[in-house]
Amino acid sequence: QSVLTQPPSMSAAPGQKVTISCSGGTSNIGHNYVSWYQHLPGTAPKLLIYENNRRPSGIPDRFSGSKSGTSATLGITGLQTGDEADYYCATWDTSLSAGVFGGGTKLTVL
Amino acid sequence: QVQLVESGGGVVQAGRSLRLSCAASGFTFSDYSMHWVRQAPGKGLEWVTFISYNENSGLYADSVKGRFSISRDISKNTVYLQMNSLTVEDTAVYYCAKDQVKWVTRGVYAFDLWGQGTVVTVST
User: Mean per-residue pLDDT for A35-46?
Assistant: First the structure.
């Protein structure tokens, strides 16, 4: 059972938009930055969003992040088949003194 | 070239020990905290441990506390994960990851650089 809750799977058609939610509590999302990662099987996870809504260089603006209270959201517009992957939110939990990840969301683009 | 390269994975019997290494290059290793993250078969990512940039603090997930130990050698630009009393639940791909922010003594800001991972299989 993950500290952060994500939907296990989502699907959308190419060109559409999807939003992936990440729900936590005051000790984690409520008081710390959220980051998002894309993970393809057999590869290293890739940072998509940091500090809730900032994109590293090289990440297209089709990817966006937001945070409100104890929840965060990753948005992906103009879906491409190459966006099929697992997506994870992460943050620090001050009460646990531990890093925490969401359970991951498997995105299917069909 | 900015990269992290893990090594040391393998097959080990339950109850035994294993030490993983992660060699860093292309950035000022001594400025950044480092983490280990793992992914068990069919499961999601799990944060395992953190060591501060100045080696003054190490923090652990409850699942490994008392069994795993993180350390770093600045002279070798390498971070280590000593894993003792291994159980089948420790079977996973282990990734080392760099924190994005300099001089972090506690916490996670973001993992901006990851290694390719090393596979640890614990057999009964």
Answer: 95
